[in-house]
């Protein structure tokens, strides 16, 4: 029997999360989100999340601070933030990236800033 759970999400109409991320397609065990044209600024407060994140930079630059290590993110690079790792981001120039999270970040309030 063919799989009928195929989901298509048009990013132009995607819902936004609490920090400005656009939620894209999601399945039972992973989801995608888009950070689009994020403005440069100060480092965000360090957080630990109850999900793993992998990302890919489309444009711009950011610095990922993870467990005391600084990683420069620029177009064409990808990264992993393991579940439970303390991390923060600082946008250095207007930044667009896509991320996938497992389990889905938006389920059960995993993406909410409160309680970080």
Automatic annotation (TrEMBL):
Residues 39-93 form the Cupin type-2 domain. One of its GO terms (molecular function) is dioxygenase activity. It holds the Pfam family Cupin_2. Keywords: Dioxygenase, Oxidoreductase. Gene3D superfamilies: Jelly Rolls. Coiled coil: none annotated. Transmembrane segments: none annotated. This is Quercetin dioxygenase-like cupin family protein. It comes from Muricoccus pecuniae. The lineage of its organism: Bacteria, Pseudomonadati, Pseudomonadota, Alphaproteobacteria, Acetobacterales.
